[in-house]
């Protein structure tokens, strides 16, 4: 089961309406997700071009009610509070923007401020397939950085995996966090009780401590560090979200 199947299944089986995708690229996931209110955020997303491609491919108009923000996610969360408040809560968030520890963690912490207490955040690329893909950089790897990385294949997951460890250690009391061993590791972040928004401020000391971990540290025990689950576990995640969505 892929990220798309997971997200689609949740929308199909609940009355969830709102979807935020951070990092959309060509909209391979965004345009296909079937949700009433969709918001796309990406500084490099040429959505008008892709809307036209989707229209052509599916011979039906892409939903023009969707909202597109061609900007970095930090800017979005800073400047678009009105958009977020108008949406009510976010039901499903897909975090797939800049694949650094700092950026991915900020995306999750910002999303949690607006997340439905019964909702879910899905994170891409939480389990790098090899060391080259886990290259920690400040932005997308540059040609000079790649030149010194043995085994570089073009796949880049960065150090998003550190965000999973941070979230477990900082907020494991009200969040359920795991990584599904499918694609390149689907991170799952979902509230098990009300989100403690007042506690979401970054813990700098913990952040720095986790930032020191290396790919070798991760590979000593990824199952425990990331609370890894096999791909079948996606069905359990969907069931849990659906049951929680239906509960009072
Ligand atoms: C891996 S692609 C996303 C793929 C897409 N989610 C999909 O399922 O097809 C990553 C995207 O993140 C975008 N990105 C980079 N920095 C970002 C930022 N600070 N905020 C939001 N998106 C960002 C890039 O422009 C790129 O299009």
Report on this model:
This protein is α/β, with parallel strands linked by helices. The chain has one domain (3-246): Vaccinia Virus protein VP39 (Rossmann fold, 3-Layer(aba) Sandwich), CATH 3.40.50. Helix content is 39%, strand content 17%. The protein contains 11 helices and 8 strands. It has helices at residues 3-13, 47-58, 73-79, 81-87, 101-112, 143-147, 161-171, 204-211, 215-220, 222-225, 233-246; strands spanning 18-22, 37-41, 67-69, 90-95, 115-123, 175-180, 186-191, 228-229. Strands 3-2-1-4-5-7-6-8 form an 8-stranded mixed sheet, with helices on both faces. Helix 1 packs parallel to helix 11 and helix 7 (161-171) packs antiparallel against helix 8 (204-211). The longest helix is centred in the last third of the chain and has 14 residues, at 233-246. It is globular, with a radius of gyration of 18 Å. The model has no long low-confidence stretch (mean pLDDT 93). The protein binds S-adenosylmethionine. S-adenosylmethionine binds next to strand 1.
């Amino acid at each position: 089961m892929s990220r798309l199947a997971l997200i689609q299944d949740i929308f199909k089986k609940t009355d969830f309406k709102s979807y935020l995708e951070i990092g959309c690229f060509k909209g391979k996931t965004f345009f296909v997700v079937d949700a009433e209110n969709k918001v796309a955020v990406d500084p490099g997303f040429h959505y008008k071009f892709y809307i036209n491609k989707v229209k052509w491919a599916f011979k039906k108009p892409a939903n023009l009610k969707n909202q597109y923000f061609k900007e970095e996610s930090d800017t979005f969360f800073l400047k678009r509070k009105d958009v977020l408040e108008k949406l009510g809560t976010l039901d499903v968030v897909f975090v797939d923007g800049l694949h650094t520890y700092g950026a991915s963690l900020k995306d999750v912490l910002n999303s949690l401020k607006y997340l439905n207490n019964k909702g879910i955040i899905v994170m891409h690329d939480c389990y790098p397939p090899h060391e080259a893909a886990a290259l920690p950089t400040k932005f997308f790897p540059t040609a000079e950085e790649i030149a010194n990385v043995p085994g570089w294949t073009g796949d880049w997951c960065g150090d998003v995996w550190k965000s999973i460890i941070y979230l477990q250690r900082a907020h494991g009391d009200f969040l359920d966090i795991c990584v599904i061993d499918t694609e390149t590791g689907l991170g799952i972040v979902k509230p098990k009780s009300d989100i403690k928004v007042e506690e979401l401020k970054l813990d700098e000391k913990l952040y720095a401590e986790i930032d020191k971990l290396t790919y070798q540290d991760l590979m000593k025990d990824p199952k425990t560090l990331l609370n890894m689950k096999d791909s079948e576990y996606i069905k359990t995640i969907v069931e849990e979200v659906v049951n929680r969505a239906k509960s009072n």
